[in-house]
Amino acid sequence: MPPIQYIVEGGRRLSGTIEPSGNKNSALPIIAAALLTEHPVVLTNVPRIRDTETLVELCRSVGASAEWTGRNTLQIHAKEIRAADLDPELCARIRASILLAGPLLARCGEVALPPPGGDVIGRRRLDTHFLAFEQLGATVTATHRLEFRASRLKGADVFLDEPSVTATENALVAAVAARGTTYLRNAASEPHVQDLANFLVALGAKIEGIGTNTIIVHGPATLGSASYAIQPDHIEVGSLIGLAAVTRSPLRIARAGVEHLRSIRMGFERLGIVCGVEGDDLVVPSNQTMKIHDDFGGHVPKLEDQPWPAFPADLMSIAIVTATQCDGVILMFEKMFESRMFFVDKLIAMGGRIVLCDPHRAIVAGPSRLRGAPMTSPDIRAGMAMLLAAVCAEGTSTINNADQIERGYERIEERLNALGARIKRIPARS
Ligand SMILES: CC(=O)N[C@H]1[C@@H](OP(=O)(O)OP(=O)(O)OC[C@H]2O[C@@H](n3ccc(=O)[nH]c3=O)[C@H](O)[C@@H]2O)O[C@H](CO)[C@@H](O)[C@@H]1O
Ligand SMILES: C=C(OP(=O)(O)O)C(=O)O
């Protein structure tokens, strides 16, 4: 497939209503977990993005049938599956290929996975996955590929060494098939972890503590079929709040899933951007103060990411671009990944007043006028942040490697153009 480039004419006001897609990071573990049951599963509101398409291909390669029966509806039936050799090229395209470990181990008793891919945003350790699988009775061999074996998974009291999102998801799926009760302590509690747990409950699993950092699973469950709707993508909602703010545009984000937006709204409020709630819609007015709130006593404030329910790491790049348009000084502290902040050199070239202190911290002094520039997207979120900068900048920008953006955001240029943006996608969508 030829690489995708966006050509963006900036400086335009937007307006209207937009609905977020289903959560990418819910859809991925849920598609993988559909392999746990022999019965058919229907998933709706599945984002039709590169990552989900790749995982669907991987599911087919182990013998499951997986068909798109509507634009965002996916039917999966894993009546019989085999722990076949998985295509290393497909696995290397997405982080989520590691999520096949739990269901395939549970169904087949063994699985060998080539290393997963995903965003290059710093070292992405797998140790927590290994720790959890071993405690659930599996043996793990990690060489050029990852091999997991367990003749029988057994419930255990597992304390994760960090609240890793995908490790919690893998452990949760394995625990549903394990004999006995499993406690997952120091578990991740992100909305997508909750979504996966609710899907497993819909299949027949018995899970307590969903949304907390101690998840209790009573296994093994007898699983049936289910029809399940993926929850809205809170990271996409946060990206759209940033977009509205930097373009000073009034936007309504319909069916935004407001129950999961508290820390995100609080983060943007620190930048002087306040959203209203109307039912499940989020309303972003255009008349924001965009004034960064100093800490008490006039001290320089900070916005930092942390595991849920704190401000999410996947919104840090968006928040940095947004801060360039706000009045004041703020320290942006990316605690989780060590390479995510390097994209700020592009914002600096565009006119952003940013000092990168070290790989984890950047000081942003705003507001600054951004000028259009050529850019290359290094990862999904930096790519989306660059798109926000380009839409807000004076003049024309080009974003190369926009394929990265499309790993996570569905038909984004089409949807933003419907709000008044001018983004040309090359090669154009037919
Ligand atoms: C497919 C998927 O769902 N990907 C998400 C998942 O990736 P993923 O599951 O790979 O991320 P992890 O939760 O394992 O960890 C992310 C990074 O944060 C570090 N870490 C984690 C917990 C902690 O308390 N302290 C800490 O520093 C880890 O060492 C690692 O470097 O979660 C990340 C963190 O929300 C998101 O960026 C990814 O979009
Ligand atoms: C880092 C991300 O994705 P992945 O874990 O799939 O690379 C993301 O969604 O921002």
Automatic annotation (TrEMBL):
UDP-N-acetyl-alpha-D-glucosamine binds at R95, D314, M336. InterPro entries: Enolpyruvate_Tfrase_dom (IPR001986), Enolpyruvate_Tfrase_sf (IPR036968), MurA_subfamily (IPR050068), RNA3'P_cycl/enolpyr_Trfase_a/b (IPR013792), UDP_GlcNAc_COvinyl_MurA (IPR005750). Its main location: cytoplasm. HAMAP family: MurA. NCBIfam families: murA, PRK09369.1. It is an enzyme of class 2 (transferase). It comes from Bradyrhizobium jicamae. This is UDP-N-acetylglucosamine 1-carboxyvinyltransferase. It catalyses: phosphoenolpyruvate + UDP-N-acetyl-alpha-D-glucosamine = UDP-N-acetyl-3-O-(1-carboxyvinyl)-alpha-D-glucosamine + phosphate. The gene is murA. Residues 8-416 form the Enolpyruvate transferase domain. It comes from the Bacteria. SUPFAM superfamilies: EPT/RTPC-like. Its EC number is 2.5.1.7. Pfam families: EPSP_synthase (PF00275). Keywords: Cell cycle, Cell division, Cell shape, Cell wall biogenesis/degradation, Cytoplasm, Peptidoglycan synthesis, Transferase. Pathway: Cell wall biogenesis; peptidoglycan biosynthesis. Phosphoenolpyruvate binds at K24, N25. Cell wall formation. Adds enolpyruvyl to UDP-N-acetylglucosamine. GO terms for molecular function: UDP-N-acetylglucosamine 1-carboxyvinyltransferase activity. It is found in: Cytoplasm. The active site is at D119. Belongs to the EPSP synthase family. MurA subfamily. Gene3D superfamilies: Enolpyruvate transferase domain.
